[in-house]
């Protein structure tokens, strides 16, 4: 029984980390796409191609990965009892913020599709640092478990 539980834990963790990688890869790519998209004139064929690429990135990689990271992460909470530990509360806060960032990026893709280029390329490049910084903190919390 103990062996089955520990194998379940390792398989859940492997799945969790695989989809964390996909999710992060998508979160790094999307604002980059926005920068190139905004360099194309509104209403051009090039802009329409970027709208399609952004939609596909969201539909095929970002949204399914977000859902699977959450489902596998919550299954790990049940397996490990992490909800009673301080590091997990801090991680949860950061993961909620990262999920909010995902939602905001997805809304910005819709704005761009309507031709509303609200943010400058410089701002988008700065925003591109958010998932990297959040991921670094989350990994330190999950691996070192400092408190
Ligand atoms: C979406 C909500 C998430 C939940 C509910 C969640 C929950 C968990 C839980 C309970 C564990 C097991 C910890 C243990 O073995 O004691 C874990 C492992 C891990 N998580 Fe998450 N997680 C989430 C998102 C993320 C994200 C976004 C990242 C990275 C950017 C991440 C990185 C990791 C890493 C690196 C481990 C392995 C830690 C280790 O065993 O050394 N998680 N997660």
From TrEMBL:
The reaction(s) this protein catalyses: protoporphyrinogen IX + 3 A = protoporphyrin IX + 3 AH2
TM region positions: 14-36, 57-80, 86-105, 126-144
Keyword tags: Cell membrane, Heme, Iron, Membrane, Metal-binding, Oxidoreductase, Transmembrane, Transmembrane helix
Major location category of this protein: membrane
Binding site for heme: 16, 91
Keyword Membrane assigned: yes
EC numbers: 1.3.99.-
Domain of life: Bacteria
Free-text remark on how the cofactor is bound: Binds 1 heme b (iron(II)-protoporphyrin IX) group per subunit.
Keyword Transmembrane helix: yes
Membrane disposition: Multi-pass membrane protein
CC cofactor: heme b
Annotated compartments: Cell membrane
Pathway annotation from the record: Porphyrin-containing compound metabolism; protoporphyrin-IX biosynthesis; protoporphyrin-IX from protoporphyrinogen-IX: step 1/1
Entry function: Catalyzes the oxidation of protoporphyrinogen IX to protoporphyrin IX.
Family: Belongs to the HemJ family.
Subunit field text: Homodimer.
Protein known as: Protoporphyrinogen IX oxidase
